[in-house]
């Protein structure tokens, strides 16, 4: 990422969003929109990203445009948040391309980009007071990446205060993150609507992610096991089989895939991320995290379990539990 601030003039594109880097510039840009004749029905929508934008991000922005309305304001934040990276993770090598991101946003309906540096977001260094994700941050991603969701919620709350949106849009691919944000907004009485947007996938089923850029051609082919496993589990649910069969089918596909190291595979309650019991009936979320080469990927699939363990296939002891990690 360059230190220069792209602008509509710099890109010679009149549709390019304005780019601001400081709190003062952001405050002025937000005030200018409000003063310039915003209608009472207009809304400000925000999409929070870490940059390296792909079509999944752009779908969020387009949905934000719909939520804000044609004369509303769409703000995209681009900030690689150090609080959500643990020791040994890819903070330093996380892909950064602000110029390219702004060029892409020119086609998606964004009005304003807020691209602060860490010293703008955290002017006093590491914050002493942070948001806790509670028990949502202690399982699955939270167990494997201690403090990750606390870091996510801390920056999301700060950005909500700075941008003051009416609606915030998040991708459903990061399902546990989306749930944590929803709980924070509800539990802390934030006056913002949270909208989840379905995962965008490549033609072959791979969930779009900025980290896909790390994958070699061979690794990318191996990574397709994640989406295949989710589809396999969803097929079991659609066929009327129980929770154990859903997990078993997905686990079998992952175990058969060479070169995929599974961190977890879990069937959980979509409102709490608690593991579902073996006799669960109703909506559930099938979650997977795995490493392919040096790249860690996550994905999920909503399923509707309609069969109890004594219907369809025989139960086993894996329902509602995380699959054994490789």
Automatic annotation (TrEMBL):
Keyword Mitochondrion assigned: no
EC number(s) recorded for this UniProt protein: 6.3.2.1
Basic and acidic residues bias spans: 310-326
Catalytic activity line of the entry: (R)-pantoate + beta-alanine + ATP = (R)-pantothenate + AMP + diphosphate + H(+)
Annotated beta-alanine binding sites: 84
Biochemical pathway: Cofactor biosynthesis; (R)-pantothenate biosynthesis; (R)-pantothenate from (R)-pantoate and beta-alanine: step 1/1
Binding-site positions, ATP: 50-57, 171-174, 200, 208-211
Record keywords, A-Z: ATP-binding, Cytoplasm, Ligase, Nucleotide-binding, Pantothenate biosynthesis
InterPro entries (UniProt xref): Pantoate_ligase, Pantoate_ligase_C, Rossmann-like_a/b/a_fold
Protein residues bound to (R)-pantoate: 84, 177
Active-site residues (renumbered): 57
Role description: Catalyzes the condensation of pantoate with beta-alanine in an ATP-dependent reaction via a pantoyl-adenylate intermediate.
HAMAP family: PanC
Record note on quaternary structure: Homodimer.
Protein name: Pantothenate synthetase
Organism (species): Isoptericola cucumis
